[in-house]
Design goal:
The protein is an alpha/beta fold. It contains five helices and twelve strands. Helix content is about 35%, strand content about 25%. Strand 9 and strand 10 form a beta hairpin.
């Protein structure tokens, strides 16, 4: 009976209603605060900055309340140094204000690669496959005296380079390759050269005046 009398008191129900109202108000305030913090429903379109200079790209992104972050660099010799090569998210994407836009910038510095140990250590086919896999550009081989298709040296920009030496990635590599099959062929070539020298030796003849 006491419990029923207690429940029947208007003051109890008033307190319960007041507490429920406070809880509802607090929940609404929290929800609105979260929505305002995350800018729920608000988005901006990401502008295209690929091809622009870094300073211009940063300015254009900041106008849209976006933050430019350079995360990588690459090398493209046909584009100016400092230009934007890639962006993420891509142009046209809709993101929230304050979002970070990740940029890849063209570097002014030509990348270099280390020459592998291929001189007098591999055949022409092996050397070419290895160099191409590493990203080198190859020119026509230069033939020298030696075993056929055996690599005797490596040249870059007109000079010999050696294992471990770094050269520009876009420089052309020329392999010095043997052009004779065996010693007999070398002997034949030497004989041919001697015969050619004999043919070109002027003969002593008397000239009548």
């Amino acid at each position: 009976m006491k419990i029923l009398k207690t429940l029947a008191r208007p003051m109890l129900w008033g307190n319960i209603a007041a507490m429920a109202a406070v809880v509802i108000v607090v929940l609404i305030a929290i929800w609105q605060g979260i929505a305002a913090y995350t800018r729920h429903g608000v988005s901006v379109e990401v502008p295209g900055v690929v091809g622009k200079m870094e300073a211009d790209a940063r300015y254009e992104l900041s106008r849209m309340e976006l933050t430019a972050i350079v995360v990588d660099s690459s090398y493209h010799k046909h584009l100016p140094a400092g230009s934007i090569l890639d962006q993420s998210p891509a142009a046209g994407a809709h993101v929230k204000p304050g979002r970070e836009i990740y940029l890849t910038v063209n570097t002014a510095r030509t990348p270099t690669l280390a020459i592998p140990d291929i001189a007098d250590n591999s055949s022409l086919r092996e050397a070419e496959a290895r160099l191409r896999a590493m990203g080198f550009k190859l020119g026509p081989p230069e033939h020298v005296a030696g075993d056929k298709d055996w690599v005797y040296g490596v040249k870059c920009m007109g000079r010999n380079v050696y294992a471990g030496e770094r050269v520009p990635v876009d420089a052309v590599i020329v392999l010095q390759v043997g052009s004779y099959a065996d010693e007999d062929e070398l002997d034949m070539l030497s004989d041919d050269e001697e015969d050619a020298d004999d043919d070109t030796t002027p003969s002593d003849t008397d000239t009548d005046i």
